[in-house]
Amino acid sequence: MHIILTGTGLVGAIALDAMLNDEAIDKITIVSRKPVPQAEGQAKVTVIVQKDLAVYSDEILEKLKGAHGCIWTAGPPLMAVTRQEYEYAHIELPVIAAKIFATLNDKFNFVYVSHDGCHDARAVWIFDVKARAEERLFQLHHDTSKRLTIKTKGGIEEEEALPSLVLYCIRPALIDYSQHEAIKPWLKPLPLAKKWTNGVILPLYRFLGLTSILGSSEELGQAMKDLVICDGQDVDVAGASPEGRCMGAVGMRNWTKERDDKMKDMTVYKQQEATAAA
Asked: What is the residue range of the signal peptide feature (predicted)?
């Protein structure tokens, strides 16, 4: 199975680590603005260095053809760009990519990394950006009944659903990667705000048992990887969104606990078991 990955930050590193350790995925193509040291020496990984994630040449599309899905983690932090650039990167680019990638296969899973609670905290601008991105993306989902209620001020223009496109949103908040040794060599030096979060906030949340917005990087990686390779089913665990297409920290934790039962009827795992038996 061929999977596309965009983004090389913390969440991208988590996603890549999860996919490298799954035998169901035999090909990973990373579309990145720069080289990916984590991918070096990995036989099943190809890196396409592409400065503009809105434009895909025929040559690149040929390399991506037949892919089963994409995990979209790309997007700069707000402090690195202007507000206009942030909105473009986190809303317009994934929408453009989803439309293009939907042509790569008869059924294509697009997993967008959003933020837990983004629809409930829209007064905070960066949360509103993620909520707007979800609203736009779910306009494209093949099943129009899954479209989110549009709460964007002024609404958005309704779009025609894409028959091949299957959408999921993963909504992490505070990500605890303190025990995830495999990804630590590939992470950039942390800015002061992140050092404060990792050194003070995360330990405090763990101590107090405040797990509603705190999840482990392993849970996040498992959920992203499972959704991108699945057959497009609704997610039916406690903590998933009512329409069955999105998971926050609680949903990811429950998914990790129940995934063996949830995944057992999926085509990809049936194929694995048949191959193992042969």
From this structure: 1-15
Q: What one-character-per-residue DSSP string does 170-214 give?
A: E---EEE-TT-GGGGGGSPPPPHHHHHIIIIIHHHHHHHT--SSE
Quick count: other Cβ atoms within 10 Å of Cβ 189? 6
Residue at token pair 């994409």 = 70
Convert 94-132 to b/e letters by CB count within 10 Å (16 or more is b).
bbebbeebbebbeebbbbbbbbbbbbeebeeeebbbbbb
Tell me the C-alpha distance between 148 and 245, whole Å. 10
For the entire predicted model, the pTM comes to 0.91
Structural element, H or E, at residue 152: none
Q: In angstroms, what CA-CA distances link 231 with 145, 234, 235, 266?
A: 18, 9, 11, 6
Average pLDDT for 228-252: 93
Residues 164, 142: Cα–Cα separation, whole Å: 6
Q: Are 237 and 254 in contact (CB under 8 A)?
A: yes
Say which CATH number the domain at 114 has: 3.40.50.720
pLDDT tens digit sequence for 95-148: 999 999 999 999 999 999 999 999 999 999 999 999 999 999 999 999 999 998
Residue range(s) defining the domain that contains residue 200: 2-277
